[in-house]
Design a protein that fits this description.
This is Purine nucleoside phosphorylase DeoD-type. It contains six helices and ten strands. It has 235 residues and is an alpha/beta fold.
Length: 235
């Protein structure tokens, strides 16, 4: 059944999906790594593809930027298309000086400055966490691929441009980096009883202002993609 945002038919999307924010990155992953490729969506140029990787049927689809966009796509993928394993892959900004450009951060948990979880009418604050099985598999894949990876807490923020350096307060509590989608993904997965994980390449250091070049982003992100694919093939 198609939705306003996805023209896929039932069965077009695999139970395991990779979710980059950039739809062109989804296209790159599909065309570079997947075999027997079929495109299932192009609504709003949010490209989605299904193919096989090492014999495992896997999908990849863009989600856009921010928690509202992630919430729409992840909710439909779970509830309309039956996706069981959702692996977010994207960039983040490091807020610790010992985390370097090109390092991988795996979000064991996600803090937020968003009110995304208000919909659940909880009498407190929801702690959004990754699926441990996906996380441990990804960490093992990173070690096999000799990737420098860090596991810990991230901040999933509604804000890209900010008026105050609030990141310093999050860093004091051990948060590793800032991105913009994982809290919504983890909430949607938790509510539906499915699995989710966020894997991020450090593209910028908020601590010292360094950032990867366009070429470094293209080449550096391949390691993250391969970690995600190796995790997906084990599901």
């Amino acid at each position: 059944m198609a939705t306003p945002h996805n023209t896929a038919n039932p069965g077009d999307i695999a139970e395991t999906i990779l979710l980059p924010g950039d739809p062109l990155r989804a296209k790159f992953i599909a065309e570079t790594y997947l075999e027997d490729l079929v495109q299932f969506n192009s609504v709003r140029n949010m490209f989605g593809y299904t193919g096989t990787y090492k014999g495992k049927r896997i999908s990849v689809m863009g989600t856009g930027m921010g928690m509202p966009s992630m919430g729409i796509y992840s909710h439909e993928l779970i509830h309309v298309y039956g996706v069981k394993n959702l692996i977010r892959i994207g960039s983040c900004g490091a807020i610790r000086g010992d985390i370097l450009l090109g390092d991988i951060i795996m979000a064991q948990a996600s803090c937020t400055d968003s009110n995304y979880a208000h919909q659940y009418q909880l009498p407190g604050t929801f702690s959004a966490i990754a699926d441990f099985g996906l996380l441990s598999t990804a960490k093992e894949a990173a070690e096999r691929l000799h990737a420098v990876s860090h596991v810990g807490n991230v901040l999933s923020s509604d804000l890209f441009y900010t008026e105050t350096p609030e990141w310093k307060r999050w860093a004091e509590l051990g948060v590793l980096g800032i991105e913009m989608e994982s809290y919504a993904l983890y909430c949607e997965a938790a509510r539906a009883g499915v699995k989710a994980l966020g894997i991020f390449t450090v593209s910028d250091s908020i601590v010292n202002g360094e950032s990867l070049s366009a070429e470094e982003r293209q080449n550096g992100f391949r390691q993250m993609m391969e970690i995600a694919l190796e995790t997906a093939v084990c599901q």
